[in-house]
Amino acid sequence: MKAVIVKPGEKGATFSDVEIKEDQIKGEEVKIKTLRVGICGTDRGIVNGKLDFARPPAGYNFLVLGHEGLGRVEEVGDKVTSLKEGDLVVPVVRRGCGKCLNCKIGRQDFCETGEFVEAGIRGMHGFMREEFVDDAKYLVKVPRDLGELAVLAEPLSNVMKAFDELIFIQKRSIWHCEDSSYGCRNATIIGSGPIAQFFAMTFEANRFNVTMLNRRDPNEIEEKISRTVGYKFVNTSNGLDEVPESDVIVDTSGYPSAFIPLIKKLKRNGALILFGTVGGEKSEITSDMITKFVEYNIVVIGSVNASKLNFEEGLSYLSLWKARYGDVLRSMITKVVKPEETQSAVLDKAKGSIKTIIEWD
């Protein structure tokens, strides 16, 4: 079959014919035709040879790229009752170790051993291929009204998990407002990529007052999204005066220099969510900052990956936003390419681009 493959540790991606050992589907398995696959920063890191945790499956010297998948069911095993031919599905990315309790109950996003595999990232072929076979328990059925927009479900699932963690942890105190909503709470999002946009939309949907930060003015698409959804966009290259005191700050950049100066903006009993990851940068954390974390009861949350439940939550939000905001979701998909164009799309991210999608069908 045709697939986009990489050799982890080496730079570059190839669209070529590959042979993958997949027997005929078994009772609980499903054969899926790939329709669309999203490209994200993890893919860019792998194609650039910069992620040392990327690895091929056992017995292979290559890895099929891609973890933001959307496909159509072509065939189901005789024990599958939740899906039928023609259904649209989104596959869950991480598969558990089978040893720790979290993995045994479907929360492999909290794997304790670190022996999990992830599609298109480590130890498991991804979805940038013509078709694949998967266990039905790792497939999330897509509402028909969403169609191709469901390709956004994987990045959004990670946001759903982080938001759920925040609300759970903040139950340590009374965090609701007097009217029982979150309308008195301020959320500040660092960055303006797809993950940042989804964080902003999720907080706004839950009545938070949202501010998005970048070191530049918004581009045309970002301006449209912020105006439609109803959050404020601040260019921090002009200083931090316009950034409000915040109950929660979410960093999607991964750069300490982006979020450390904002610690002074955190209110009592606030939270800092660290989501973005990069390598190499160093910034100083002072004892005064530690004192503020202690004296203000500030919590730090690191969050990665998502469970099947989070995928289902994300699909529900996508349906809500499609009805509420019209073409805003579609405008987030700023570029659509063919599989043979994957390498250039990954290595040369277009200026002003939010989300690039590979179209397989």
From TrEMBL:
Matches recorded under InterPro entries: ADH-like_N, Glc_1-DH_arc, Glu_dehyd_C, GroES-like_sf, NAD(P)-bd_dom_sf, Zn_alcohol_dh
Cofactors (names): Zn(2+)
Protein residues bound to substrate: T42, E118, E154, N158, N305
Annotated binding of NADP(+), by residue: S192, G193, P194, I195, N214, R215, R216, F275, G276, T277, S303, V304, N305, K349
Top-level taxon of the source organism: Archaea
Keywords, comma-separated and alphabetical: Carbohydrate metabolism, Metal-binding, NAD, NADP, Nucleotide-binding, Oxidoreductase, Zinc
Reaction equations catalysed: D-glucose + NADP(+) = D-glucono-1,5-lactone + NADPH + H(+); D-glucose + NAD(+) = D-glucono-1,5-lactone + NADH + H(+)
GO molecular function annotation: D-glucose binding; glucose 1-dehydrogenase [NAD(P)+] activity; NAD+ binding; NADP+ binding; zinc ion binding
Family, as annotated: Belongs to the zinc-containing alcohol dehydrogenase family. Glucose 1-dehydrogenase subfamily.
Protein task: Catalyzes the NAD(P)(+)-dependent oxidation of D-glucose to D-gluconate via gluconolactone. Can utilize both NAD(+) and NADP(+) as electron acceptor. Is involved in the degradation of glucose through a non-phosphorylative variant of the Entner-Doudoroff pathway.
Protein name, entry field: Glucose 1-dehydrogenase
Source organism: Sulfuracidifex metallicus DSM 6482 = JCM 9184
